[in-house]
Write a structure and sequence with these properties.
This protein has no helices and four strands. It has one domain. A hairpin with a 2-residue loop joins strand 3 and strand 4. The radius of gyration is 26 Å and the shape is elongated. The strands form two sheets. It has a two-stranded antiparallel ribbon. It is an all-beta fold.
Length: 75
């Protein structure tokens, strides 16, 4: 068994609880997929230009604030 990084005691009034902190040895991450309800078909996110309909690369996307109709300030 692994050795603890830190050991201590938590006290709650008259009750003391021993505590040990261990380093993580493996990843327990959960990855979810987006699927359509009912059909279980996979759903993907595409970045598409509204005017041309072409897909835009992630590196070409910036944030902007709309001043007037069609006029933006890039932030």
């Amino acid at each position: 068994m692994a050795r603890p990084i830190w050991s201590g005691i938590l006290s709650f009034g008259l009750v003391s609880v021993p505590v040990s902190l261990y380093a993580a040895t493996e990843s327990h991450a959960v990855a979810f997929r987006q699927i359509q309800r009912g059909t279980s078909d996979r759903v993907r996110n595409k970045r598409v230009n509204e005017r041309t309909g072409e897909e835009v690369a992630f590196g070409d996307i910036v944030k902007g604030f709309e001043l007037a109709e069609g006029e933006y300030v890039v932030v």
